[in-house]
Design brief:
With 307 residues, the protein is α/β, with parallel strands linked by helices. 43% of the residues lie in helices and 14% in strands. It starts with a helix and ends in an 11-residue tail after the last strand.
Length: 307
């Protein structure tokens, strides 16, 4: 056989081999597709579960709020919503919370910290709370959440309650109307939601509600499911005097010496820049309250109003 014939035979052989391989590939692909289709057909369909989680860390409200009952809300377990207010309205879900009685069974101290989270004093306060085995409530600003999301994640992960304290404390914009107030609450809700995947029901009005709220504010917030709490005890750590740690301890000791409404001390402190004395005072405040028989709780929709 000459060289040209040999080349021709080799080419024909190569073509046949490639043809066989192509057939096998097609058959294999068809078999694979059939097998994959069979697996997919037998795999159970994943259905989105109705949000509503009871855990050691927090209670997550169901869409219809049916799991938000007095017996189902723990004294030291925060309560959150899986949905933002905008999402609830878009889905046609209820926004107004069910009527709930307040918890007054025993003496409870609610340690609350406003104006964070910052990246210095808030972590220092978290360290003290962890060492003392106490959960507290942090009313955060939306702008600070955006600056320090990792600190907010730590607050959440360590079982403390997170509340909404407006976006940036701009009183003129915040209190211009009930609608502008809610706009700021929603803006901060969104900031919190982006970090922890849920939003709080509890809020605190900057400066407190006295002299700021009119009756229509309360009604409007109630319809939208926001629960506002002021305070009945404070360390005065936000005053121009900047009291020392020792003085702050004395303030709390004196103001919790007598009977307080509903057996509760709702204590206002701050965790932003310049509050180093609050950090120093906190261990003594906790020790004194324990010595007086107080149990510690976090603010929830069943926490009594301080006024």
């Amino acid at each position: 056989m000459n060289g040209g014939g040999a080349v021709k035979v080799k080419r024909e052989g190569f073509t046949k081999v490639m043809g066989v391989l192509a057939v096998l590939f097609v058959l294999g692909g068809a078999a694979g597709a059939f097998w994959l289709a069979k697996v997919r057909a037998t795999k159970p369909v994943e259905v989105e579960q109705e949000p509503g989680v009871e855990s050691a860390a927090y209670t997550l409200a169901k869409g219809d709020y049916s799991n938000l009952t007095y017996d189902n809300i723990s004294l030291d377990r925060p309560v959150y919503d899986r949905y933002t207010l905008k999402q609830r309205l878009a889905k046609g879900l209820p926004t107004m919370l069910p009527a709930l009685p307040h918890y007054t069974a025993e003496k409870v101290a609610y340690l609350t910290f406003d104006d964070g989270p910052d990246d210095v004093n808030t972590p220092a306060i978290l360290d003290v709370l962890k060492a003392k085995g106490v959960h507290a409530t942090f009313y955060v600003l939306g702008g600070m959440v955006e600056k320090n999301p990792e600190v907010l994640k730590r607050i959440f992960a360590e079982g403390h309650a997170i509340g909404n304290h407006s976006y940036d404390h701009d009183y003129d914009r915040l209190y211009a109307s009930k609608e502008s107030f809610v706009e700021e609450m929603e803006q901060t809700d969104e900031a919190i939601f982006k970090v922890i995947g849920m939003r709080p029901f509890i809020i605190r009005a900057p400066g407190g509600t006295v002299g700021m709220f009119t009756a229509d504010f309360y009604e409007h917030l109630n319809l939208l499911g926001y629960v506002e709490h002021d305070w009945n005890v404070l360390t005065e750590d936000a005053t121009p005097e900047h009291p020392s740690a020792e003085r702050q301890i004395c303030y709390i000791d004196r103001r919790t010496a007598g009977h307080l409404k509903d057996n509760m001390a709702l204590i206002l402190m701050h965790c932003n820049g310049g509050k180093e004395e609050t950090v120093r005072a906190l261990p003594g405040i906790i020790d004194n309250l324990r010595a007086k028989g107080y149990r510690f709780g976090v603010v929830t929709p069943i926490t009594p109003q301080p006024w």
